[in-house]
Design brief:
It is built from 13 helices and eight strands. The protein has 254 residues and is of the alpha/beta class.
C-alpha cells in the first residue's frame, strides 16, 4: 500500500503485519544494519500533505506499518490490505527482539520520570532486557539542532542498538533519519505515546474500545483541547485518499 503526494513523493507501507515487521527488525539487528521505523496514521497523512521536510524524511524510512484503522481501511479499498500494527503495541515485542539478541536499547523522549517508569516496566516484562540510555530532551526539541547531535553521541557511547523515540511527529521521524545515517548500526522506532502508556503517564483506551475501532475517539475525548482539532483536520483528508485508493484498485484490476 502506498500514498502519493503532490510532489510525487511516495510513502509505502512495506510491513503488512506485526510478524513480518518483527522478523525484519530481527534480521537488521543481527546483521548490524541500522533502520528507521515509522508508524503511519491519519495525523501523519495530514502532516505529510503539508510538510515537504516531513515527506522527505518519511520516504527515507526503511520500515513503515499501519498505525490506525483508517489506514487499514484505505489499504483494503485499494485491494492492497495490511494489518493494524499500533506503535504502542510494538514497544515490548521490539524490546523482546533486542533482548533475545543481547542488545541494549535506548529510550528517548517524554520526561525523565516517565522514562524511568517505562524503563522499569520494560525490564520487568522483557527478560534480559538492558536499557542502556534514557534521555528526555528539552522542549521544543530541534531534531536538527545541537541537542540532537549530543543525543546521537550519547546513543553511540551507550552501545544501544535499538532506540525507541517518543518525541512526537514530525520530530521523531526527522531525528530517526538523521541518527540512523549518523550511527549506521542502530535501529530507530518512532512509537509516539508508547512509553507514556507503559509508565502510566497516559492511559490507553480499554480493550473493548480498541476492538470497536474507536481508540481515536477515546484519545480525543481524553484531551479534546489538544486533539479535537487535529482529528477533525485529519479526517477531512480521508475522502481524497479514499478516491486515490479506488483509482489504485482499478489500475491493478484484470
Amino acid at each position: 500500500m502506498e500514498f502519493t503526494f503532490p510532489d510525487d513523493r511516495k510513502v509505502q507501507i512495506n510491513c503488512r503485519d506485526a510478524a513480518s515487521l518483527l522478523t525484519q527488525v530481527g534480521q537488521n539487528l543481527t546483521e548490524g544494519r541500522g533502520f528507521a521505523l515509522a508508524t503511519l496514521n491519519v495525523d501523519h497523512l495530514q502532516r505529510l500533505a503539508e510538510d515537504a521536510g516531513f515527506r522527505h524524511a518519511y520516504a527515507q524510512h526503511d520500515l513503515v506499518c499501519a498505525d490506525g484503522n483508517p489506514i487499514v481501511w484505505l489499504s483494503r479499498l485499494a485491494a492492497r490490505p495490511v494489518s493494524l500494527v499500533p506503535g504502542s503495541d510494538l514497544v515490548l515485542p521490539l524490546a523482546g527482539v533486542a533482548a533475545r539478541q543481547g542488545l541494549p536499547v535506548a529510550l528517548i523522549g517524554s520526561s525523565n520520570e516517565s522514562l524511568a517508569l517505562a524503563s522499569a516496566a520494560m525490564r520487568a516484562r522483557v527478560p534480559g532486557l538492558t536499557v542502556a540510555l534514557t534521555h528526555a530532551p528539552g522542549f521544543p526539541f530541534d531534531p536538527a539542532g545541537a541537542e540532537a547531535d549530543d543525543i546521537i553521541e550519547s546513543i553511540r557511547q551507550s552501545g544501544a542498538r535499538l532506540c525507541f523515540l517518543a518525541l512526537g511527529a514530525p520530530r521523531q521521524e526527522l531525528f530517526a533519519i538523521r541518527a540512523r545515517d549518523a550511527l549506521g548500526n542502530v535501529g530507530f522506532a518512532s512509537i509516539g505515546a508508547g512509553l507514556d502508556f507503559l509508565s502510566g503517564h497516559q492511559h490507553r483506551a480499554p480493550g473493548w474500545v480498541r476492538q470497536a475501532k474507536m481508540e481515536w475517539a477515546w484519545r480525543m475525548l481524553s484531551n479534546p483541547k489538544r486533539l479535537a482539532a487535529r482529528y477533525a483536520k485529519g479526517f477531512t483528508i480521508l475522502p481524497g485518499h479514499a478516491a486515490a485508493a479506488i483509482r489504485l484498485r482499478r489500475r491493478q484490476a484484470p
